[in-house]
Every structure is written in C-alpha cells, then in structure tokens.
From TrEMBL:
Listed name of the protein: Uncharacterized protein
Organism: Enterococcus gilvus ATCC BAA-350
Domain of life: Bacteria
Length: 34
C-alpha cells in the first residue's frame, strides 16, 4: 500500500511540475526518489 501511494505522489508531483514551472525548480533540488 505504501508503495502505491508513493507512486501516486510521484506522478502527482511530475504532473504538477509540468503545469507549474515554479515548483519544478524546487523539486529538482529535492530528491523525490528516496
């Protein structure tokens, strides 16, 4: 279950990054895949 929600979170972050370039810069500094 945890892995599934992590996957969904990553997918959400990626789609948000595409829609909002501001957050893309923040996410590049933050490791998502830990």
């Amino acid at each position: 279950m945890e892995l599934e929600s992590k996957k969904i979170t990553i997918i959400t972050l990626v789609s948000n990054r595409r829609k909002q370039p501001k957050f893309g810069a923040i996410e590049q500094k933050t490791p998502i895949f830990c």
